[in-house]
Amino acid sequence: MSTVIPIRAEASGCTDVVPLVERGQREVFCGLTGIIWLHRKIQDAFFLVVGSRTCAHLIQSAAGVMIFAEPRFGTAIIDERDLAGLADVHEELDRVVQQLLARRPDIRLLFLVGSCPSEVIKLDLSRAAERQNQIHQPAVRVLNYSGSGIETTFTQGEDACLAAMVPGLPSLAATALSNETAPALMVVGTLADVVEDQLRNLLERMGLQVSFFPPRNSQTMPAVGPHTRFLLAQPFLADTARALQARGAQHLPAVFPLGVEGTTAWLQAAATEFDVTPEVFEQATAAPRQRAEKALAVQREMLQGQRIFFFPDSQLEIPLARFVHRELGMDLVEVGTPYLHRQHMAAELAWLPAGTRISEGQDVDRQLDRCLADAPDLVVCGLGLANPLEAQGITTKWAIELVFTPIQGYEQAADLAGLFSRPLKRRLKLAA
Question: What is the pTM of this model?
Answer without folding.
Answer: 0.91
